[in-house]
Amino acid sequence: MERLYTEQLQVGYGERPIVQDLTITIPDKQVTTIIGSNGCGKSTLLKAMTRIIPHQEGSIVLDGQLIAKENTKALARKMAILPQTPESTPGLTVGELVSYGRFPYQKGFGRLTKKDIEMINWALEVTHTESFRHHPVDALSGGQRQRVWIAMALAQETEMIFLDEPTTYLDMAHQLEVLELLEKLNKEQGTTIVMVLHDLNQAARFANHIIALKDGQLIKSGSCEEVITHDVLAKVFQIDAVIGQDPRTNKPMCITYNLLKGAAKHDQKAIPLHGVRSVSS
User: What kind of membrane protein is this, topologically (predicted)?
Assistant: First the structure.
């Protein structure tokens, strides 16, 4: 059974539609990346699917139930979301922030149970953030802070984690650190990961499934090989892309590109780049 999907979804702000007539499925226990140009509705879709914002038309279904009618705490036990620029209270420690992930399970005065403490310790351990448990979050580096926020999501003990541009403002090493952590969580814990990424090669490298949007509508969804193609990228980004193959992962990668407007059409069948093999468009 498909756990999470949308049907003819429409989301907007006021009278301005952002996501229009969108029908997609999120594969369970896989890594899905959402790609598209700025303003195409990627973040809006993420927020709607996690019920941060309401949708106007259509439906979002999780485990056979409309999420619009799901109990808030019950929903928070199934999915966690990390926004694009999460912020914490100044002076809040890492341990305190991660403990907030246990909110959906707390009752009464909200005291931490033995299970809560076990989950917090596990989340700190798996994200390698235990060593700065007592450090203020705002004193950490960008990569460390991102791992701490992921730890909070893990402490929430959900089977799905949604992340809106988790590599924004991070250098190349810290980007890989965060993406490899998410990949590890997916492979070892079976966590369903859904994230918005701007870097096409990172999207292809770490995803099992890609959703490409333009102007709030679905252009293509499927495997990396089905989505990272010359024709799809031309429709989504208006670029004339040269697609090759990553020599380490064998997945498609965008080697170079020109703006499609006024750009000459190039032969995509042969790309002599240090043995990198071309993927035909």
Answer: Peripheral membrane protein
d(CA 232, CA 20): 19
Question: For the whole model, what pTM was predicted?
Answer: 0.86
pLDDT of 89-112, one tens digit each?
Answer: 888 999 999 999 999 998 766 689
pLDDT tens profile 13-56: 888 899 999 999 999 999 999 999 999 999 999 999 999 999 99
Percent of the chain surpassing pLDDT 70: 91
Domain at 1-78+158-227, CATH homologous superfamily: P-loop containing nucleotide triphosphate hydrolases (3.40.50.300)
pLDDT in tens, 47-61: 999 999 999 999 999
Q: Which residue, 73, 98, 89, is CA-closest to 151? A: 98
Rounded to an integer, what distance in angstroms lies between the CA atom of residue 253 and that of residue 206?
12
Q: Which amino acid is at 105?
A: Y
CA distance 45 to 4: 13
